[in-house]
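Figure 6 in text form: structure in, sequence out.
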């Protein structure tokens, strides 16, 4: 690692802000090279050319030709860790070939509302799935000595007022839902950098949040460099003190002077500045491992990997009477302006200049029997009503056996920078689909969008493929799914609601003025639909195949530190296929209140017709822990648990119940607010709890050892239940003075001695 001592004070105050939009400051005299960063999560978006810098960070300007991979929603739908690793690998190769040191991804914020403008870029509504997939992506990328920048840490779940909105979130929800995915990826895959978010969290900007940055550094032991999102720094001195290392983009005209002044005034010490610089030096050290003469990149070969990844991203939502796949000789009408103007990627900082973009229409034209197929426009991309286009589509739908409508959200409907206002497709697309379904029973809808849409015609069409934004391979994978060359194996990583008002954050999204309250707490995504028994349009984890799968023989065996799970999955249909099996756990112990079930494992298997395989997975007990807000720590408590093997969050197939030994939570210090129930619940303080009950019983003239109960007819169990939530402070007045303050204090002291004996 470069020697901190070789840096002058001027070097130090320059290095903590970038050099420009994409570089950090290099100090050759101290062997500190300049680091080059580049977006983005779904392909390299390099905006720096031979002559130096070009471009912006919002995707307005062009970038170097690259491979466009499926976006986050699509990648997560693969439920395939290997493909996420391959995604990182593809991007890592290109980054290394261009001497890029850090790629600004993966983007892993939880999808709190389906309206979120960046949902196309984010993975899922579930933190376990997010953490697993992000880990795989980072490992694939960093194998090329290219660092990841996991983003946006944290709670960047909306675009509306993203640069100053203050997220009000409770501590348990923050840890269990919004930080758990980051925690898994950061602690296991060790991304070189973490990018802080724009928003505020409980009053502090994420870039100077002691709460967030202490969790990152102190609780998770993160040693890498923390960089800001572009222009996210509000107060550089506060940020440096809280644990930020590099402000991006470079603000050389302003920041060094501020830092210099702070040093002079003593509001920042040189030791604090040094502490901020050490992780930058570690980052440079890692970047030095990248080969100086990179392997030249073969974009044609990369395109093959893009196809492989995209071949598992589409989700077959519905397929009545096996209307899909379509025989190449069938008579088909292909309808939709999106055939000519495909939406294959997202807008904003992840926008890629795809070198090998494939188009759906030419592939369909060469694949299907020309004499029996027809192409029609159906609607205008800008949603202008056009009766003529609909009439032509209806006429074609009457004569062809099958109709495939290509629909979705044009670019202007969803992007970084703004949220959607509703969940609807453009109105003319909905009209078209309803009109053709009225005259044809074999309508297939192919959707290209980054996030859930409503489907008023869901019962009228025969099949629906949610193809999301599959990247440059769009023109190969969609025709291949239609013909059955690819058997779809994607499953939703987010719930599709029936209507916007069903969504968990409906009453609190995007908040008002500067604040948003995460009032739904832990109940995000399927956790909410489960708890409220609201049937979704399509559930989290749902996705069909051209074959069928049966699940058998679930066994769950507890060991000292995990649940060992085995189960059989069989392909019961006639074609080869892949199935993602999901393992949810329902905590039946009633020790803490929690959602009805939570995803804790998954596995994807590939099976030939008739073939079966044994799935073997483990769920470490640490995955079953809950965040305890009194202890400010994760606590695993054991007790009865049900493991549910499922094909989706609503297609639950097999269950196995285990009774794990109860692990008492470490006792917390007892004070006047501690309740009698809390004393009784803990082995160390149980005896004091009983002593109090006896004292109270005596004060009321009852015999605590008898079942007879009180003179008013309350039995002992009822009396105990009534006293359960009584705080110790209330004992004096509750007993009308029979128990005095001295006795109470003596009990508290005695209880605390039991917890931490001297
Ligand atoms: C985005 C980041 C991106 C950065 C650089 C910001 O506006 O929020 O995700 O990496 O720009 O382009």
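Output sequence:
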């Amino acid at each position: 690692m470069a020697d901190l001592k070789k840096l002058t004070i001027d070097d130090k105050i320059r290095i903590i802000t970038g050099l420009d939009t994409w570089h950090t400051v290099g100090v050759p005299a101290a062997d500190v090279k300049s680091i080059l960063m580049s977006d983005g999560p779904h392909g390299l978006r390099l905006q720096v050319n031979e002559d130096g810098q070009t471009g912006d960070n919002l995707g307005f300007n062009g970038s170097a030709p690259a491979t466009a991979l499926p976006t986050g929603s699509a990648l997560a739908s693969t439920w395939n860790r290997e493909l996420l690793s391959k995604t990182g690998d593809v991007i890592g190769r290109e980054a290394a070939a261009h001497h890029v040191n850090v790629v600004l991804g993966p983007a892993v914020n939880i999808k709190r509302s389906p309206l979120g403008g960046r949902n196309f870029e984010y993975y899922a509504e579930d933190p376990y799935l997010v953490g697993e997939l992000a880990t795989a992506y980072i490992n694939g990328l960093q194998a090329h000595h290219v660092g990841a920048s996991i983003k946006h840490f944290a709670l960047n779940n909306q675009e509306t007022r993203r640069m100053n909105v203050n997220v009000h979130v409770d501590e348990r929800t923050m840890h269990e839902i919004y930080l758990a995915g980051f925690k898994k990826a950061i602690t296991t895959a060790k991304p070189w950098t973490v990018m802080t978010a724009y928003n505020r969290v409980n009053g502090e900007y994420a870039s100077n949040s002691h709460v967030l940055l202490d969790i990152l550094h102190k609780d998770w032991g993160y040693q890498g460099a923390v960089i800001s999102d572009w222009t996210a720094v509000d107060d550089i001195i506060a940020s440096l003190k809280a644990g930020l290392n590099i402000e991006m983009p470079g603000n050389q005209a302003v920041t060094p002077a501020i830092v210099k002044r702070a040093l002079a005034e003593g509001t920042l010490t040189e030791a604090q500045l040094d502490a901020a610089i050490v992780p930058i030096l570690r980052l440079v050290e890692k970047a030095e491992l990248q080969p100086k003469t990179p392997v030249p990149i073969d974009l044609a070969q990369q395109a093959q990997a893009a196809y492989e990844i995209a071949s598992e991203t589409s989700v077959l939502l519905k397929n009545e009477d096996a209307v899909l796949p379509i025989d190449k000789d069938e008579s088909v009408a292909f309808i939709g302006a999106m055939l000519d103007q495909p939406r294959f990627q997202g807008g904003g900082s992840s926008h890629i200049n795809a070198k090998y973009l494939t188009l759906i229409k030419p592939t369909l034209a060469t694949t299907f029997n020309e004499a029996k197929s027809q192409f029609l426009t159906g609607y205008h991309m800008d949603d202008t009503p056009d009766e003529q286009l609909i009439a032509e589509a209806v006429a074609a739908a009457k004569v062809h056996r099958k109709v495939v409508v290509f629909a979705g959200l044009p670019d202007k409907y969803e992007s970084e920078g703004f949220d959607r206002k509703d969940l609807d497709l453009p109105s003319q697309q909905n009209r078209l689909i309803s009109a053709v379904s009225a005259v044809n029973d074999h309508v297939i809808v192919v959707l290209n969008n980054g996030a859930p849409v409503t489907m008023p015609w869901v019962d009228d069409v025969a099949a629906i493929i949610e193809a999301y934004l599959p990247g440059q391979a769009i023109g190969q994978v969609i025709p291949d799914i239609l013909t059955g060359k690819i058997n779809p194996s994607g499953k939703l990583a987010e719930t599709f609601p029936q209507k916007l008002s069903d969504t968990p954050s409906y009453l609190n999204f995007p908040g008002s003025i500067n604040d948003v309250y995460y009032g739904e707490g832990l109940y995000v995504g399927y956790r909410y639909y489960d708890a409220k028994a609201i049937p979704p349009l399509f559930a989290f984890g749902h996705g069909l195949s051209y074959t069928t799968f049966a699940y058998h023989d679930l066994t769950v065996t507890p060991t000292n530190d995990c649940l060992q799970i085995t189960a059989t999955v069989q392909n019961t249909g006639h074609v080869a296929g892949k199935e993602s099996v999901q393992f949810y756990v329902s905590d039946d112990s009633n020790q803490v209140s929690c959602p009805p079930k939570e995803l804790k494992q998954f596995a994807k298997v590939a099976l030939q017709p008739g073939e079966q395989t044994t799935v073997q997975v483990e769920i470490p007990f640490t995955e079953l822990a809950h965040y305890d807000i009194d202890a400010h720590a994760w606590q695993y408590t054991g007790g009865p648990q049900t493991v549910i093997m499922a094909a989706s969050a609503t297609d639950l197939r097999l269950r196995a119940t285990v009774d794990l030994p109860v692990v008492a939570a470490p006792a917390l210090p007892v004070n006047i607010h501690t309740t009698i129930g809390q004393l009784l619940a803990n082995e160390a303080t149980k005896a004091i709890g009983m002593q109090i009950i006896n004292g109270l019983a005596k004060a009321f003239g009852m015999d605590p050892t008898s079942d007879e109960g009180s003179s008013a007819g309350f039995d002992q169990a009822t009396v105990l239940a009534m006293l359960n939530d009584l705080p110790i402070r209330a004992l004096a007045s509750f007993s009308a003075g029979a128990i005095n303050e001295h006795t109470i204090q003596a009990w508290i002291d005695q209880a605390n001695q039991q917890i931490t004996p001297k």
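Caption detail: DSSP finds 20 helices and 28 strands in the chain.
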